[in-house]
Write a structure and sequence with these properties.
This protein is of the alpha/beta class. The chain is built from eleven helices and ten strands. Helix 2 packs across helix 8. One of its GO terms (molecular function) is tRNA binding.
Length: about 300
């Protein structure tokens, strides 16, 4: 099998668009698609300072690698969640990835910051729920306190389609109204962008292998049995039968997103009495979940 554009041996068979590409032409295709996504959705400006939340996995590492290659001013943040061996391995991979990319890496360790790791906190909330609150708070406050203009995450097409599909199944319209490749910044909320928004998980894996990025392959122990994994399997089966299902679904959602935005009825935000970050009550979700009475400092010294 030969590449569509040259006589080299094919590295990957793309299902949509249907074509064979060698390693070099696939890398070119992937990076061009990221650049086009950034331009199409007006995600980033050339002079912006970008924080990339890097987990040790493939998606965030690829995001950092491509943005660095495209000439953006990036730094990386790894949040060590304190989940035993899994977090130790994740941090080690994040360090190796940033060395290869040539990007500055900042590390925040949840156990050192808050006195307990994810999975150890006594709360009625499901572990994944308060983990999400914790990560979002830390990377947003870190970006805000240290002068970053944007936060880039590694969410890919499969992540986005499964999340939207899940929320449509349950008619969680509040969540649907906020989804998309760009979440504009406002006040103490820093702009969030998803440069891999139109690239599949399979394409991300092949790109990571093509450029030599090693990444952790184990899933978080607390993610086992997550419904999003089941939805991904359903959507993969649909994509297998009809290539292009995922990208057409996401483009259709973006065309109709305004229908869900109309239903958003958010109460005006105040300031958390503990940390001063945005909150709907006296305390923000983060300070409330962790029972904090003093703000955590995340400014780089």
């Amino acid at each position: 099998m030969r590449c569509k554009f040259c006589e080299s041996e094919a590295y990957i068979r793309l299902h949509y668009p249907k074509m064979l590409l060698c390693r070099e032409h696939f890398i070119e295709y992937f990076e061009r698609k990221v650049k086009r996504t950034i331009e199409r959705y007006k995600l980033l400006k050339p002079d912006e300072k970008i924080l990339i939340v890097i987990s040790g996995g493939k998606d965030s590492a690829v995001t950092a690698y491509v943005l660095k290659k495209l000439g953006y001013n990036i730094e990386c943040l790894h949040i060590n969640l304190g989940i035993g061996k899994y977090s130790e391995e994740s941090e080690a991979y994040a360090k190796r990835q940033c060395e290869l990319i040539g990007a500055k890496l900042h590390i925040v360790r949840v156990r050192e910051l808050l006195g307990a790791g994810i999975g150890e906190l006594k709360t009625r909330r499901p572990t994944c729920s308060y983990c999400g609150i914790t990560k979002r708070y830390i990377f947003n406050k870190f970006a805000y306190e240290n002068g970053f203009d944007a936060i880039a995450t590694g969410h890919n097409l499969d992540d986005e389609v499964s999340f939207i599909f899940s929320n449509i199944m349950h008619w969680n319209t509040d969540y649907l109204g906020k989804q998309g490749p760009l979440l504009p910044g406002e006040g103490k909320f820093v702009k969030k962008v998803k440069p891999l928004y139109e690239l599949t998980e399979r394409e991300v894996v092949y790109y990571a292998l093509a450029v030599g990025l090693e990444y952790i392959v184990h899933e978080c122990p607390h993610a086992r049995g997550a419904t999003t994994i089941e939805y991904k399997e359903i959507l993969n089966a649909m994509e297998e039968k009809k290539p292009g299902t995922k990208i057409n679904f996401i483009k259709g959602f973006l065309r109709k997103k305004h229908l869900f935005e109309r239903e958003l009825k958010e109460a005006p935000l105040g300031e958390c009495k503990v940390c001063g970050m945005p909150a709907q009550g006296e305390k923000c979700s983060f300070c409330r979940v962790w029972g904090l009475e003093e703000a955590v400092g995340l400014k780089i010294k």
